[in-house]
What we know:
The protein has helices spanning 18-28, 45-54, 79-84, 103-113, 130-141, 155-161, 224-231, 240-255, 263-270; strands at 4-10, 33-39, 59-62, 76-77, 89-93, 96-100, 122-126, 146-150, 168-171, 185-188, 212-215, 235-237. By secondary structure, the chain is an alpha/beta fold. Strand 5 and strand 6 (96-100) form a beta hairpin. Helix 1 (18-28) crosses helix 8, helix 4 packs across helix 5 and helix 4 packs across helix 8. Residues 127-132, 151-153, 156, 189-192, 198 line the site of 2'-monophosphoadenosine-5'-diphosphate.
Amino acid sequence: MSIVKAGVIGHPVSHSKSPVVHEYWIDKYNLSGTYEKIDITEEELSVGIQKLIDDGYAGFNVTVPHKQNIIPLCDEIDETAKLIGAVNTVKISDGKLYGFNTDAYGFIENLKSHDADIEGKTAFVLGAGGASRAVVYGLLDAGAGKVLISNRTKEKCNEISMINPDKIQIIDWTDRNEALDGVDILVNTTSLGMAGQPSLGIDLSALPAAATVSDIVYAPLMTELLKSAQGNGNKIVTGIGMLLHQARPAFEKWFGVLPEVTEDLEALVLK
Ligand code: ATR
């Protein structure tokens, strides 16, 4: 059997945990494949990708700063990637590039794997960057009744609210603490709380105890937000699961097996 080649493109890409995840699955499912980190700068993007096509790659993941720039280079992109406005997974078939976005799927699968109810619920998403777009799209696609969004730079919320203006409500950044009243799912998609960044600094007093709190930051795994949510009796969902679950459909596209997320894998990635 020939070797199936895949990887992750980005710049920088040295920090990526994706090889650990995909190599674990290649081994677990006894497949003949490789998954590497491939550093490609913005200027070299189209040349770098042509090289992957020429070298017979089955596809690749896309990380910072290429998630948007890759779009015009794709021959086709799926509906989800179009709506999110970013591609994180590419399959190469007959020299053509097919773009997908599995971030929304990864976020929702992670919530569901922690038994969080989404259908008809009210979610509150902090942040309005690329990750926020995928999270908001995922929540609405999974049946959330209402999504509140708040961002330091309020204008950035307007574009995200176009995903579904009837169900998305923009909250002033200064009103975020009060807006927690009645929220079922709170999600941090900002970079606040990440190692080396200031903490989110949110007062959870108004958040119902039955709410689920999720952070997409996973370094550290237990952010200040999650610690205070846990202290208040909220269910918490750490960010590592999104990283693991978003990788599943990508792996399936290249290697033909939909792999499982296990505790062993989570421990390995967090090592
Ligand atoms: P990603 O694609 O991972 O979402 P991003 O597009 O850089 O990353 O977005 C980072 C998010 O963190 C944004 O919502 C950003 O708010 P701004 O749009 O106002 O920049 C938010 N963020 C970063 N530093 C922040 C800070 N000190 N206070 C409040 N929000 C912050």
